Task: structure prediction
Amino acid sequence: MDRPAALDENDARWRTAGDRIQTLLDACAASGPAAHERASELVREVVGLYGAGLRRIVAACDAGLTERLAADDLVASLLLVHGLHPHDVRRRVSDALERVRPYLGSHGGDVDLLEIDGGTVRLAFTGSCKSCPSSAVTLELAVEDAIRAAAPEVSSIEVVTAEPAAVIPAESLLARVRPGGPSATAWHPAPELAGLRPGEVAGFGIADTAMLACRVDGQTFAYRDRCPVCDDSLAGARLRGALLACPRCHTRFDVVHAGAAAKGVHLEPLPLLTRDGVPSVALPVALGAPA
Result:
């Protein structure tokens, strides 16, 4: 059964509640250490009270109900805060990777979970579109976001490369897509993308960025609205199967495989994931997204 739109909007609002609470605490700090400590103590008391209530609720639930509660992103985040989530970190990381695996496959890639050592997750990416750097960043961002949401206790993510055999810290791989990096990103809800019909192409403006989305074989793909061949808009483009033809230079792009074209060029894919039941697009802050 589909969830009401109002519920999805509330989920998106509560997802950022932690940031708003921290902003309020920082504002209290301007009134001096005593005011900040009182505000912090108030937050701790409220969190503790709700934690005690959640603990009693979980204790009264059978295994099936607990599983259903843990499947809800918002409830799962609260269970994690209070140490009440029924799944260990390996199970949660594995489930997170399963959720994004179809998306990785759409960009010609996959990921394997090698091990979890303390707070470090080690992964191996396979089969990614090596001729498409923007696609590689898209895959990294999708995996990073999924793991951080499912297992906030993870302190670092390392990607093991095949040649040479070495470990690359996620801090260097993902510097372009993490908040505060040279090209920080922000997620923007785009509920209108859920209404795309099979074979449909539609243009959208999100955070002052022009993009287009295509629906192929039950999946939605998002790209920046710019043809890399003629450097013009793709407005008016149509799909033939998985091929999107530029209405001006007539170059055909495979939207299922990172927007690749026969001429060795490709469209610029935009990270598109379902967050709290709402399709969301990640855009660089430098291109107009709010920090």
About this structure: The helical segments are 5-15, 17-29, 33-60, 63-70, 73-81, 89-106, 133-150, 170-173.
